[in-house]
Amino acid sequence: MNNIFPERFWKKVNVKGEDDCWEWTAGRFAISGYGAFWNGHINVGSHRVSWQLLHGDIPIGMQICHTCDNPPCVNPNHLFLGTAQDNSNDKWKKGRGSREPVNPNRQARGERCHTAKLTQNDVNEIRKVYAEKIMTTDMLAKEYGVTRKAIKDVIANRTWKSDKYIVPERWGIHNPIMRGK
């Protein structure tokens, strides 16, 4: 690696304290959220590049794992070398396995989701207004700048789920709670 490569890499990192996550500020892989760094040939995980800059090549069959479980983090203090099995064991140990309860801090939900168009206050108001028969789903969709389906999903508790929310009776047979009665 030439000297320009590390300099170009670290310009794309928000370096903070030694124990803090150092967030990758450039492009990311869409599904995983890991940072993507163009190495001149292909996009490579930025956490892998961070490891390589400090330790050299990654041995075949090994992965770069995060102690912080934050995909865009490239802080070398948060990275460790491990096998796929090590990574899987770490995931299960931290309660992120598919049969474990979802860690609410791991998956962005509600207002924390970058694609959210509604806030929790909007959702509460939509449910209240609809239950009081003040506005229709079409009117609510127009008012909040979302689709009618988005409003129906909020009202039916399919999105922005709440154990405290009771779906209005006026949904009748379409009410998921009323099915089978």
Describe the overall structure.
By secondary structure, the protein is of the alpha+beta class. It folds into 2 domains: 4-93, Homing Intron 3 (I-Ppo) Encoded Endonuclease, Chain A (Alpha-Beta Complex), CATH 3.90.75; 110-174, no CATH class. The protein contains 6 helices and 6 strands. The chain has helices spanning 4-10, 46-55, 84-93, 120-131, 137-144, 148-155; strands at 13-14, 23-24, 36-38, 43-45, 63-66, 79-82. The strands form 3 sheets. A two-stranded antiparallel sheet has the order 1-2. A hairpin with an 8-residue loop joins strand 1 and strand 2. Helix 5 (137-144) crosses helix 6. The chain is elongated and about 65 Å long. The N and C termini lie far apart (68 Å). The relative contact order is 0.08.
Keywords:
single chain, 181 residues, alpha+beta, Homing Intron 3 (I-Ppo) Encoded Endonuclease, Chain A, two-stranded antiparallel sheet, two-stranded antiparallel ribbon, 6 helices, 6 strands, 30% helix, 10% strand, elongated, disordered C terminus
Structure at a glance:
The protein is an alpha+beta fold. The protein has 6 helices and 6 strands.
Itemize the secondary structure elements and their pairings.
Blueprint: H1 4-10, E1 13-14, E2 23-24, E3 36-38, E4 43-45, H2 46-55, E5 63-66, E6 79-82, H3 84-93, H4 120-131, H5 137-144, H6 148-155
Antiparallel strand pairs: 1-2, 3-4, 5-6
Helix pairs in contact: 5-6
